[in-house]
Design goal:
With 86 residues, this protein is an alpha+beta fold. It contains three helices and five strands. Helices cover 30% and strands 21% of the residues. The radius of gyration is 12 Å and the shape is globular.
Amino acid sequence: MKLSEEQSKLYHSHTIRNRQEIDQSVYCHCISCTRSYPSPIVTDFIKDGEGETALCPYCGIDAVIGDSCRLIINQAILTYLNKKWF
């Protein structure tokens, strides 16, 4: 699995200031620890002047993406993004 630089940036853009997307998602996925879980267990967020960014309930990293972003998210993509960014 390989994504273009543009595609990788698109996925990354959904991991910041993503409170609304997380709240609207059924499942969330962490690019850092590559775990998937129901969105209601995401309860911690980092606040900045422009919004709130979800923290993974397992590893505590701000690399969570929710399925409401409408991007394809599977284990191969999570693994690729993990290797690229971590």
